[in-house]
Write a structure and sequence with these properties.
By secondary structure, the protein is an alpha/beta fold. The chain has 10 helices and 10 strands. Helix 2 packs across helix 3. The radius of gyration is 21 Å and the shape is globular.
Amino acid sequence: MTARSSAEAPRGVPEATVARLPLYLRALTTLADAGTATCSSEDLAAAAGVNSAMLRKDLSHLGSYGTRGVGYDVDHLRYEIAREIGLTTDRNVVVVGLGNLGQALANYAGFRSRGFRVVALLDADPRMVGSTVAGLEVRDVAELERVVAELDVAIGVVATPATAAQEVADRLVGAGVAAILNFAPTVLTVPEGVEVRKVDLSTELQILAFHEQRRSGEYLPTDPPGSSVSPAVLAGGEEVR
């Protein structure tokens, strides 16, 4: 098995464009909630945090939804992007790993409002199994395959320690789940045709630290070997729990 990577998403839409579609959808939702019926590409681009040329190019991959001199119909474009992403139908989600992060994900209200239903929670810890999190009973991870089949799970969220993540991913794939969101601090290997998105919070913090260090003038390019480094950093950071 190999780690899946692709330059393009289905239907010929570039992966970089796919990554920005949720930004446009969020911006359009904010505009709609504010009562805005139409908007220009400049206004939408500013709300999404991109430049207008990039936005127009991205939307050109989906079709022509703007009107010259008028702009975009906010509700219509919001529907079309949601349809393109696949959010016009709810998708069932299982969260595997109910440590602190897993419980936070289970309680995140934003999933439901965006078309994702957390329908099951799984954990290997006997102390967690049988407890209630976000209104759902935590089930034993041994039931994973049964849960996927019974609840028509489309997306698996892996929030386990790194040591367990690959096994969980293998079982999700074996049960028919072809979309995995990985919060575990490890790279998952999956067959062709299975999509994995990795969310590495520690890496993002390290990138922020890089920029903050230079902004504040802390960076010393001549730091001698053996300078103080956090043992947690040398150990690769803490595992997800």
